């Protein structure tokens, strides 16, 4: 585990700003799905008064709680935990959707949002060879430069590899389940989805 200049960096953390920029003005309640030890949840708490992080990994939740902040860390299954429907202004998730059925997970996130709320996801998907070879080579090159400059922090959460869903499949799911969402594929092995729930 390498941390340079006192700051953590890895491929997931690199895209946290995309999540944070999506937080709507006036948001009061946020949910971090697959929060791990809570780094994103704590970043959300800087602007959102009430933040809940949920994860299935007990060790990660214990680490989050050890920070002594006022994030509400929940050990449990996001898909079955009894959250109230339409109870969050922000639902965020980084590198967690591939740990569950993607369609079920996206639908659950959508249903937990209040009208006007924002869903922001950064996820992993599976490359398709040989079509994705240029993207893979670009990711290796860019990632190598970032690690040399910033180090690389290894998160304590369980790993699922390879992701079960491809990038085109994720784009199609987002279009189907979250009409009008913004899907983008990023260079460092990630995609993002940002969607605002209609108010009608």
TrEMBL record:
CDD domains: AdoMet_MTases (cd02440). Residues 31-120 form the Methyltransferase type domain. Keywords: Methyltransferase, Transferase. The keyword Ligase does not apply. Gene3D superfamilies: Vaccinia Virus protein VP39 (3.40.50.150). Pfam families: Methyltransf_11. One of its GO terms (biological process) is methylation. InterPro entries: Diverse_substrate_MTase, Methyltransf_11, SAM-dependent_MTases_sf. One of its GO terms (molecular function) is methyltransferase activity. Belongs to the methyltransferase superfamily. This is Class I SAM-dependent methyltransferase.
